[in-house]
Every structure is written in C-alpha cells, then in structure tokens.
Design a protein that fits this description.
Length: about 270
Amino acid sequence: MSKLRILYAATEIDPFLQTTKVAELLRRLPAGMQEAGAEIRIFVPRFGIINERKNRLHEVVRLSGINIAVGDDEKPLVIKVASIPTAKLQVYFIDNEDYFHRKSALVDKNDKFYLDNDERAIFFCKGVLETVKKLGWSPDIVHCNDWMTSLIPLYLKTTYKKDPVFKDAKSVFTVYNNEFLDKFEGNLVDKAKMLDIDDQMLTSLKSADFSGFVKLGMEYADTVVRSDEDFSDNLNGLFKEYAATKRLSQVAGDENLLASYQALYNELAN
C-alpha cells in the first residue's frame, strides 16, 4: 500500500461542507488510506457556502489561471487549498466566480435547483484533471464520488488517456442516493465534449438529468461501487441494467469499510 497514489474527487467533505453521506465518507476514507501508507489528493468544489476565513482557505497561484472550456465558453480556474488538521490531509478546492460564488451548494434560497449545475459539474471534472496534470502527480486510483464527478472516468479513457500523468490510472465511481428530478437545459453533449470524444460516447447525457450523469460514470469507470444506502427504484434499475456488462463492487459497511476499499484499490492497481 505504501506506493499507492489515490486521487479523491467528490461533491463535499466534512468539516468544510456536510449535506449528504458523501462528506462523511470523504472525511473517513482518505484519512484511513493515508494511515495505511497511501499518498492522497482530495478535490471538491469550492461552494460559496464554505466559509473561507473560518476554514483558512487560500489560493494557490501557481495552480490557478487555467481557462476551462464548457461548451463554447471558457472560464478561469482558481485553486484554493485548506487542511484538515486532525487528519493531516490537504484539500484542493475547485473555484470559479461565475459557478461557485453563491451562498449555497446545488439549490438557491428558494430550494430551486441551479439550472447550470451541469456546467458546474463539467467545469469541476475538467478542473480536477487539469490541476493534477499541473501538479505532475500520477494517481494509481481516481476515486470519483457522486454524480458531479461522473465525467472523470470518461475523460480518463479518452482525452487524458495518453497523458503520462494518467496513463496507468484506474477509476472507481461510487454512486450515492442523491437523486434529483430536475432536467438540465441546453445541449449537454456539446458542453461536455473534449478532445477524442464523439457524440456517441456521450449518449447517456442526452437525457439531461441525474440518471444520465450516473449512467455515464458507470459506463466508463473501471469499477462501480454502490454506497451503503437505501436506493430509489430508479437507481436500483440502473444497477440492474449495468450488472451484466460492468464490474460492480460491493464494499463492506462501516466496520470493514477501510479494509474493503483497500482491497479494491490494490486489486485495481495490480
């Protein structure tokens, strides 16, 4: 385990933001893997609800300044970092004024879903990979958590496939019961495109909804993990649909969570 490099991408992490089970897992799992000898990097969006002063976030100028394309638009990427002192873990925050400077995460003050959450997800996924490239740090495992990270497995198998930083990386996609019913507007396929990606590869996104993102993540990840939650009928259906063609992994519950993931990572890396 000592040489294993694990990149975690997720929607949130405790103590910076905790609205779903994702935050709890991301607080516990990377810390456990680090204690076991792995080298860790963690990336989350810098949602405006995260208090920068309280959490001591600061910009990393040498990593910032890249323009990230979302469809025909390009927006500047800002990278901020903060530490979890009790775990000695550093967290990288993907930031952009247009996408993340709102005083809430995925819904507005009236509990309405932001219509550009699809663009925010695309910006986040591309931003993570571009920042890791700039770091020059080659992960063995890229562990993607929740729908917002679901484009990363696709990008790893296409645009970034020949990049020396990612050439040996294996992807894990953990699905959570964070389903929403809202539909995205505009041409999601065009927004998500990158080099070496054609429309057919993005067929799942044509539904322009939560299921489309999850399907895409399941389609391109090297293994798919089901979180320890009660799933909706729709999500259960997606797992049944992919069970015949995809590698699906079931990790143990709380008591053996770390050992279960450790075994999965080692198997994939080897």
